[in-house]
Amino acid sequence: MSVNNMNFEDASVILNDMHKQVTGEESIAPVDSASFVSMAQKLLQAGYDPLLKSLRQTITRSIFSERNYDPKLRGVQTDNARFGAITRKINYLDNDFEVNPAYTLEDGAFTPDMFTTNKPKVFETVFYGMNTYKRHYTVFRNQLDNAFRGPEEFAAFYSGVAQNNSNVIKQSWESAVRILIANLVAGKVAKNNPDSIIHVLTEYNTATGLNLTQKEAKQPQNFKAICQWLYARINNLSDLMAERSQLFQEQIEGFELNRHTSKEFQRIYFNSQFLNEMSARAVADTYHDSFLKADVTEGVTFWQNIKDPYKIIAKPSYMGSNGQVVESETEVTIDNVIGVMFDRDCLAMSIFDEFSSQTPYESRGDYWNLWWSWSVRWAEDMSEKAIVILFD
Question: How far is CA 273 from CA 21, 281, 308, in A?
Answer without folding.
Answer: 18, 12, 11
